[in-house]
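Task: sequence in, structure out. Protein: Exopolyphosphatase/guanosine-5'-triphosphate, 3'-diphosphate pyrophosphatase.
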Amino acid sequence: MFAAVDLGSNSFRLHIGRHDGETIRIIKSARDPVRLGAGLDSKGNLTPAAMQGAIESLARFNSILSTYPLNAVRVVATNTMRIAKNSAAFLPAAEAAIGYPIEIISGEEEGRLIYMGVASTLPSLTERRLVLDIGGGSTELILGKGLEIEQVESFSIGTVPQTLSFFREGNINAATFDAAILSARSRFEDAAPVYRSERWSGAYGSSGTIRAISDAISKNGLGDGNLSLKSLDALKRRLIQFGHASKIDLIGMKADRATTIPGGLAILIAVMQELGIKVMKPIDAGLRMGVLWDLQLRATKRDRREQSVRDCLRRFHADEKRAEFAAQTASALFSLMKPADNTYAKLLNWAGLLHEIGLSVSHSGYHKHAAYMIENADLSGFTTREQRLMSYLVLAQKGNLRKVGDSLMDSDFAKAILALRLAVMFMHARIKVDLDEVRLKMKSKIEFELPKAWVSDHPTVAYWIEKEKECWSDVGVDFSIKLNS
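Result:
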């Protein structure tokens, strides 16, 4: 049983689901209209009131999660947490409230998860499709075929800022609506050729905003009853007739949704006009369902992060044999040090695979280039935090340790750094590590026992070990070496 929590700009949502052998059945859902996106001040910081409201909501979600026997929980935060300048300061309190780590995911990762959720509900494995998700703070466009994603892009335009910018204080009129649509079209204009109708056969809308618009059209007999430009224009004219968000009275539309529906409708009209979409089908699946499927795939050892690393390795033409050697050796040495848990095991393995991708930029300082690339690359399946940790590992693979000094406070992470540094050293010396021949411990100091033959047969090893001792001594860690026969 898995749980997915989506900390969106409009609302916080929760899904708890169980895989029944074929699909994931949702057994519990919850929604809180937190409106986090409207809680940013003029400097881009979350206000105290917004943070307090979010923490109260997260505590309520925590009480729900605690009543289920969950195998895994993933909490993802989207656009507002991405752009809030004080999100890092807010995270510890938020994580304490919900009881789980919160992952601030990129817009592209959000799009991929949305597509996974939508694709899981559609039968065709050959259909070329476009998926649109209009969120509170961002809008995602994803192009794919069946379960495979071909193109994903996130645009920093959502219902909250669009409503606040053009429908101030809830006022709705024809001039501002047209201005909101034109503004939105300008945001999609450059990317439009990639997503135009000739590249897909079906268009789907996954967000709560799109489903709310679709419900308003069908339940109130607007236009032709479908998500078409004719129907959207009919809904637009009806909203203009109301004149104010507080006066919106449509069958099936909740009051909290009505406040941002003008901005969402303007974006939807703009996308359909710009991309030439004649009709769109609303789908009751998206980000949360995608997160649940991602957890299911990880549990069955089909982790898409593995494929992302392999793709990145090949994209930058790194030597795969050397990469495998470093990754496997680092993992073996890490296990020798008996870490408290496996938190860093996979990240270390992936960092080992990617440690030389910086060579595609320059042989000088390649570890710095690789670290930058890993932290900033678009790696499917990875969170910002995971990429940052891998970046630190790769940065620390050689040279002084002061550059990652704070990371050494985490004893298991320090072990991962040591494992990768030694693995890279043995890779350069072409020494295949036999775990039966070495002993490695790291507690208050590092104790390393290795065969004397390694040093005699590979003269540079003695030099590099002495340099390694100096690097660890420089950050206050003793490093003792023992050679056995």
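The mean pLDDT is 92.
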